[in-house]
Design a protein that fits this description.
single chain; about 475 residues; alpha/beta; Rossmann fold; Transcription Regulator spoIIAA; 13 helices; about 35% helix; about 20% strand; binds 5'-deoxyadenosine; binds iron/sulfur cluster; tRNA-2-methylthio-N(6)-dimethylallyladenosine(37) synthase activity; 4Fe-4S
Length: about 475
Amino acid sequence: MTNVTQMNETDRQYYFMEKASGHVAKLGEELGRRPTCCVTTFGCQMNARDSEKLVGILEKVGYEIIEDENADFVIYNTCTVRDNANQRVYGRLGVLNGYKRKNPHMKIALCGCMMQEPTVIEKIKNSYRFVDLIFGTHNIFKFAELLCSLFENEGMVIDIWKDTDKIVEDLPVERKYSFKSGINIMFGCNNFCSYCIVPYVRGRERSRNPKDIIREIEGLVADGVVEIMLLGQNVNSYGKNLEEPITFAQLLQDVERIKGLERIRFMTSHPKDLSDELIEVMKHSKKICRHLHLPLQSGSTKILTAMNRRYTKEQYLELAEKIRKEIPDMAITTDIIVGFPGETKEDVDETIDVIRRVKYDNAFTFIYSKRTGTPAAAMEQVPEELVKEQFDRVLKTVQETAREQVSRYQGQICDVLVEEINENDSSLVTGRMSNNTLVHFPGDISLVGKLVNVSLDECHGFYYMGHMVQS
Ligand code: 5AD
Ligand code: SF4
């Protein structure tokens, strides 16, 4: 018989899933009903995908997945990229404690990026004693094993790894959408932008083997997926450290060949690594969506240097111009930080200049948040009251260009992937154009997951109202 310590990691975790199933079944007998579980995700697409992996295991071991946090098991998959995400977690933990007092069976787990920060762990140990399980980003693959520890031990279970070179394949995943899915192609980040905590909490860059990625996508397509999003902190440096190096553009070409797959998205691109090869591949692709997220962060070369972004304002503009020229229907979206240490009104003028010239289709604008341990935290900070005014100026400009950009498709017919019944009006469905713009139009649930042609009748700022037309 194979000893559990000698098994490969995937088999080991399936062994623990079996074992955890027994614990959950026993709990179910005690409760006289199936135990419930709720997974709440904070932050980015990476976290959303990680939560699907958690749900995959939870379903497999017998939990009923519900949306209500008044459940027998609640997991917060946390984010720490900006401090407001952390504050939300602390606030909501107070509410969970109230539920737990009424339900003594309740277990609370915390995982994700925030848990990789030692100060956070100290704070939880001291002030949130009612939390039962804490794990981090590097050991999420051993969730089944941790679940067993939770059932088999008294007191708080804490397991945080500093880093890992491990990538564990083939664990269960439960997708939120039947027709679209994120796929991790790499983990971690090597860039060390001076404001960013991600490299510290997600570790160094590790690319998945292209064969594993293709196999996973083929499996998803066989299961009804038509749109995928390749996920990585910096997808443009995918494959550089593999034993047999391959470029992101080459990977995209391999993915394109998968029959039955209709749309390919990816996130996020670092401007310094976006190659001409990638532009060529996007230009000739039938499946790669007309949407590129290209974080600018700042339009001032002085600030970009302090941020360690490794491109200048001019280099960014040149790249954006090249993309606009080669692929005119490509929507370009971005991230912008306002209030980075040392940023003046003149620096913000430069950012506004870039926004006007690139004409973003959409932009996420963030107020700089000081992250302990990052180089920028030690720099002289900009007073809060000065930041607000600059932030509003940037936001206003972004809204102007986005309106103008989005409206350029008015009256055209385009293909839309229907995602869901409209949240506010159940006679409508909501879908997404290749360039990521949302469209609402009359339809019913039978359309969800289908690609249909829609006439873009009325532009309402960031979205369209339309009607379906025969293809
Ligand atoms: N403060 C504000 N925004 C940040 N981002 C990353 N770190 C910080 C920070 N410390 C933003 C960047 C990045 C996006 C995911 O989050 O714009 O592109
Ligand atoms: Fe953070 Fe920069 Fe890496 Fe993005 S590229 S995750 S902003 S360090």
